[in-house]
User: What shape does this take?
Amino acid sequence: MSTIEAPVSGTSETEIVPAGGRWSRRLETGDRLRITDLEGQQAVDFLCYGADLPLDRMNLPNTIKVNKSLYVTKGSRIYSDLARVLMTVEEDSCGYHDTLAGCCSNESNKLRYDVDTTASCRSNFIAELAKWAIGPSEIVPNINFFMRVPFREDGHVVISDGISKPGDHVVLKAERPVLAVLSNCPQVHNPAAGLKPTPIEVTVVRA
Ligand SMILES: [Zn+2]
Assistant: This one.
């Protein structure tokens, strides 16, 4: 990959990411990223990378181990391959965000639902990461904000109806320069997006 260049800075920017859309920004230390589930039950697939080189990727096993939690919520720290804190969850009005199910893909939709999908979070990630010269092999297991994947003591997991309400939001603080990447999940074959993908709002507040 090439060096990730800083974007034009500003104090605050807000945009609506349409149903099935994607988004990415470089964030500097102390910048805040606010993600709002405008209509509720909308999974937002999230990747995060250290913005400096060599590429240091979000690492969910490290995140789970250090936070001692299989889900992400207020106070959770997001750790990297090198066990550095990339971001901290400062606010969370929902209370539960998945670390288990990863992203939907054209291939897994074919396997699980026998459909020839063209829209998926993996396709979104591939397209969005290409803007930053990051290839598909650098896509790692991701956090799914506002997605409910309950787990039982016997190990059983299933994608369930989300519990996020219209207007639920998370605020993530960048603890170092990072690249944040979102896919507003287009899935219609399971309840990840309430079977009806909807828009989200994304705000960056510069430190
Ligand atoms: Zn998805």
